[in-house]
Specification:
The complex is a heterodimer of chains A (109) and B (115). Chain A has 109 residues and is mainly beta. Helix content of chain A is 0%, strand content 57%. Chain A has strands spanning 3-5, 9-13, 18-25, 32-37, 44-49, 53-57, 60-65, 70-75, 84-91, 97-99, 103-108. Chain B has no helices and eleven strands. Classes of the chains: A mainly beta (109), B mainly beta (115).
Chain lengths: 109, 115
């Protein structure tokens, strides 16, 4: 079956760095997405990786290793507004997104 | 309209009633999707449409139906609601379904409670 695993919850301190991991097993691979979802709101797109390596976008970076079925989202210089759930999703061979349950990130001052 | 709108925002429904959740996008996207989001679970695809006039079943289609008469609208119908359909429903769209890298844009969601 298809499976996306990510930690349920993480806590970090304002100004620090946090890494959210995602491992996956899917039928085919057409890229991996990270979305941010604030409580009570819709998911919003953060990043997309299809090739191995690191993609940097401001304070956020995303890494992919296809051979290991592994990705991480790195958030630097954490701000209180980064408190949200972070969703990992893999596009399978049918171009459908398979979603992880999300990681709730709590930022403490 | 900017992006994707959904209606209603929330709804409490008696079991056995019929309900249609509305979704409209103004981005001229070809593909549209309906997901449900339940606590502790990832977003699960209910139905999708790769282009106007076509629809397909996702991971959890039972008890739901959709139609795609035009590019902009993608309503989701619960023919006879049951309590297990209590969830938050998100509509999404993307420029193309059959290409990697096309991000999905989400509507604000409909919170549905079936009693």
């Amino acid at each position: 079956g298809q499976n996306i695993d990510q930690p349920t919850e993480m806590t970090a301190t304002e100004g620090a760095i946090v890494q959210i991991n995602c491992t996956y097993q899917t039928s085919g691979f057409n890229g991996l997405f990270w979305y941010q979802q604030h409580a009570g709101e819709a998911p919003t797109f953060l990043s997309y990786n299809v090739l191995d390596g690191l993609e940097e976008k401001g304070r956020f970076s995303s890494f992919l290793s296809r051979s290991k079925g592994y990705s991480y989202l790195l958030l630097k210089e954490l701000q209180m507004k980064d408190s949200a759930s972070y969703l990992c999703a893999v596009m399978d061979s049918n171009y459908q997104l398979i979603w992880g349950a999300g990681t709730k990130l709590i930022i403490k001052p | 309209i900017a992006g994707i709108t959904q209606a209603p925002t929330s709804q409490i429904l008696a079991a056995g009633r019929r309900m249609t959740l509305r979704c409209t996008q103004d981005m001229r996207h070809n593909a549209m999707y309906w997901y449900r989001q339940d606590l502790g679970l990832g977003l699960r695809l209910i139905h999708y449409s790769n282009t106007a006039g076509t629809t397909g079943k996702g991971e959890v289609p039972d008890g739901y139906s959709v139609s795609r008469a035009n590019t902009d609208d993608f309503p989701l119908t619960l023919a006879s609601a049951v309590p297990s359909q209590t969830s938050v429903y998100f509509c999404a769209s993307s420029d193309s379904a059959l290409a990697g890298g096309n991000e999905q844009f989400f509507g604000p969601g409909t919170r549905l409670t079936v009693l």
